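Protein data sheet
==================
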Amino acid sequence: MKKLLGMTLDELKAVATEVGLPRFASKQMAEWIYGKRVRSIEAMTNLSLKGRKALSEHYEIGCSEPTDVQQSTDGTAKYLFPTEGGELVECVFIPDDDRATLCVSSQVGCRMGCKFCMTGRQGFGGNLSTTDILNQVYSVPGSERLTNIVFMGQGEPLDNLDAVLKATEILTAPYGWAWSPKRITVSTVGVKGVERFLRESECHLAISLHNPFPGERLAMMPAEKAFALEDLLQVLRQEDWSHQRRLSFEYIVFGGLNDSERHARELVRLLSPMECRVNLIRFHAIPDSPFKGAPEERMLWLRDYLTRHGVTTTIRASRGQDIFAACGLLHSKTAPSPLPLWGSASDRKPL
């Protein structure tokens, strides 16, 4: 069965014509799917009975419930979703007073191979469809509370750019969820899709930087070889960041590796000419990793140094670390693992 969730208005118009419905029925379908979030075609009660029957013969909404959830002591929840390809993928719901952020995935695993990331260790299991991406938003419990979405879950969003752009179009389109692009941030290690993303999307952009020196960055992040940091920064410098769109750099702070004054000075040199901010992130240890987190006092020093030298810098609060939902810890394989991921029923909470 074909999925309606993830279709644009033009695609819904084609569906309406195909099944013998008037073209204006596409707007009705979009309102039922994206406005009212129905879970069956039968619920589209302003479509004729004949039209609903014809639609149901070839189409379904395409939403699916999460199969598991893990709840953190800080209120963060990690959900496991099935995908159209028969794989599993994680997303993270992060409540914070009057805000609620959903960290969504764009791929099963990841092929970028960052040495400090559990998702990278999982390997690449395939791209998510637009349906898979939007289903995380559509079906996560508490979705009506969401104020922000970040594409910072499993996968490299710009390595699945067609599906991500289509998902953000539907999230921001009047016929879809009608969100402001300012509520959505897309994160990337820096691949050549950056140029196209900047042309075709108005969503915020976050760059996974982690080291300002190309050689050192390459040792941590193999993607540096395919799209060099200097080339990436050259693209970013050509963009006007003084308007509504925000540019940020994610920087995991590793003790003795990227937290020296030499690194701080280079970050200032590279970033101070741009309108941007830096988010410092605590490293969450993974098994058999040579990396270690920096002491808290070092993170505070780095934050203050960068801010004092003109680069607005904050330390991101870690959320969901006890359920392996924090940055770099997402990993949806059910096979045996050194981390208590989804392999033990004792880690799960009934839905």
Q: What stands out?
A: The radius of gyration is 21 Å. Confidence is low (pLDDT under 50) at residues 334-351. The chain has two domains: 2-60, 68-347.
